[in-house]
Design a protein that fits this description.
CATH topology: TIM Barrel
Helix content: 40-55%
Strand order of the largest sheet: 1-2-3-4-5-6-7-10
CATH architecture: Alpha-Beta Barrel
Largest sheet: 8 strands, parallel, barrel
Number of strands: 10
Strand content: 5-15%
CATH superfamily: Divalent-metal-dependent TIM barrel enzymes
Radius of gyration: 22 Å
Order of helices and strands: EHEHHEHHEHEHEHHEEEHEHH
Shape: globular
Number of domains: 1
Number of helices: 12
Amino acid sequence: MKGPGIFLAQFADDIPPFNTIEGMAQWAADLGYKGVQIPTWDKRLFDLDAAAASPAYAADYIGILKEKGLEICELASYLQGQVLAMHPAYKKLFQGFYPDGLNAPECVLWATEELKKTITASVHFGTTNISVMSGGLAWPYIYPWPQRSAGLIDDAFQELTKRWLPILDFAHENGITFGYELHPGSDLYDGATYQRFLEETKGHPSACLTYDASHFVLQQLDYIDFIKHFKDRIKAFHVKDAEFLPDGMTGVYGGYLDWKQRAGRFRSLGDGQVDFKRIFTLLTLSGFEGWAIMEWECCVKSSEQGAKEGAPFISENMIQASERSFDDFAKSETDTDLNKNILGI
């Protein structure tokens, strides 16, 4: 496992040093981070068109980071993935995610091309995974009341697969995986929906995962058991904390309250309930070789404090995998005759 890394999206701003990659790179390095996850939609920090068209742009960008002692963890295209499969109910709310004036079919074409550009750019940057959200056609019907029309969810997943499959194929042809972050608001939001998508795509080798336990805490899903089910599919790791404190007024659905008042809310690292020691242990045992990337979201603590505390928190939890057994001092050489004698055979 590599780290600590940091996702830049939540820290980008129009105010220096947060409005250029040079400024953010110096800021992240000064805080002790070793890698950065790049939001490909933020033109202040990244030019996706140039990155896809020009290996020279990628080389220059890598050079800027290297001067600060940083690497690129990966490129992230969350917003483009959300637009690829966008229920009409969310079209206006997501307007900031895509160019003005596009109708629904044009949004799909735009998102498809953006995601393909990210694949080409990843090849130029030498990275192998792209973190995304799947988009959500069925999400408004998550609760089965009123009773869903027959085949509604089947049709939604078939359409989701239809839109993603050419992109997944293009990714596989270029040695790239997509790490779906299982996120409420998207049709892939838990283990069951991800498994369904895998079945629809016939186990596509590029349909992988970006693991983020915080979303599972808010759903009350067993995020430890999840790793055991899908460890071979996890290609990226967002280190983000959360807590779930239900009471007599609110639970999982949140009562339409803001983040500060919800029972489930995201917290800065170490302030929530996520068992990171167990997570880091399981990912290490599974042979995970990607980055441990802090994604900061907290409605209590400032972003400045969260960023400052993130790098040492991740470093303290990272595990150097053992290459020898603790009881090697007592081992004996293999002796088949002795073993048979011991076993009485």
